Every structure is written in structure tokens, then in C-alpha cells.
Amino acid sequence: MIIRPVPALIAVAALTALALTTLAQPPKEWAIHDMNRPQPKVIDPGTASTADRPGRPPSDAIVLFDGKDLSRWRADKDGGPAGWKVENGYMEVVKGTGGIHTEQGFGDVQLHVEWRTPTPPHGEGQERGNSGVFLMGLYEVQVLDSHGSQTYPDGQASALYGQSPPLVNATRAAGEWQTYNIIFHAPRFGADGALQRPARATVILNGVLVQDNQELTGPTAHQARPPYKAHAAKLPLGLQDHGDPVRFRNVWVRELGEGR
Hints:
By secondary structure, the chain is mainly β. The chain has a single domain (about 50-255), classed as Jelly Rolls (Sandwich), CATH 2.60.120.560. It has one helix spanning about 5-25; strands spanning about 60-65, 75, 85, 90, 100-105, 110-115, 130-135, 140-145, 180-185, 190, 195, 200-205, 210-215, 235-240, 245-255. The longest helix has 18 residues, at about 5-25. It is globular and about 60 Å long. The N and C termini lie far apart (about 50 Å).
């Protein structure tokens, strides 16, 4: 039996193809290679860190910790001064003082954090150099000594905790400085509080891509997958006190525009 195309369906298919072609075309407000198009802002890209010395942040970065004090951070417990130790250019978790968060709120960001777990290693699994980096205080990128130590995959270093294991384990040995570069796009909510777009995160650990524009199902939690709830467009960044003397240095952030 020969099935003949229905004219109406042909018309719909043609219009769909035209729409997709139109969407795929680049914006037309500027001609190709137009020298009148605004030039990107020029910045100093800074310098890379070494084992002994943190690098210099980009000139347009907001420096959250420069190795001197915690003036940009507050205690999670009561909003008072952060109770962590600061010495030799790093801050260190003080067990029992609780997590800390930035005074300033952020949404879409490029976040740079360098961290170091205790040496010699102590404990196993989740008890081995545990901490966390919290985007908006809700979405955790796990900090853990995962070098030669196993735990559940969605809880090892550079996991989006409880949701997405890293693509590879790119951790260095305990006592060495590790580097996170995180690109985070905050979720978007409508006026009615309904989720319009989930959060997404790209994580580079020690120069290796470990989370590739990964969608989050909601806030991260221990043994739970809570759903999204509408929240502010900008919220503080957080670092976790999990009882281990994890160190952090060279923490800076660049706020990102909405983009196209």
C-alpha cells in the first residue's frame, strides 16, 4: 500500500523546518566581522597558582579570601564573625564552629576555590577530609580526600553531592592543594514560584573537566533529593564544617551576565 503525504502535514513540516533554521541562525544586529561591534572588556587574567603560592585573581574578580582575614564571611550559626582559623595564607575549618558563608549574595558565577585535606590522611570514606562548597548555600560541590579512598560515587570529591558523580577522579594526594573552577548558573523561577530553568554546574578539578554543564535536580542533601523551592536570585556562597581541618585559600568569584 502506498501512503501518500497529507498536504497539511507537509505544510506543518515545512514550517517547522523553517523555524528551526531561523533559530539556528546567528543574531543579525551585527554584520560578520563588523568593526563597529562593541569590543569585549579587557581584563588582566591574573596568574596560575603553584604548590607553594596562590595565583593572582583576574582583575574583574571579587576576592572573597586573600589569605589575610575573614572579613567577607559570616558564621552560619548566628551570622556573627566567622570562627575559622586564618594563618599562613589559608583559612582552616575549626571543628564545631559551624559552616561559614559570604556576606554578599551571588547568582550566576565563575567560582575559584583552592582546598587542601589533612595529611597524613585520617579516617575512611566520608570521614576523610570532608567539607563542601555550597553555591547559593543550597547546591554542594563535595570536598573530600578521594585520593586512594573510596566512598559512594555521588559523594566523592567534585561530585554534585547526592546527585552527580564526577566524570573522573582527578584528585591529588592529601596535603596537596586542589583547585576547583566552577561555572554555576542559578535556577530561574517564575512570578508564581514555579521552576522555569534548573540550576546547572560545570566543574573543573585540577584542570580536568569533571562536571559538564550538569543539571541539578534540586538542592543537594544527605540521603535525600529535595525538590526546587523558589528562592532569591542571589544568595551567599558557603563552606562546610564537617569536623575535619580542611584548608582553603585563594577564593574569588566573577559574576556572570545573563547571556543570550
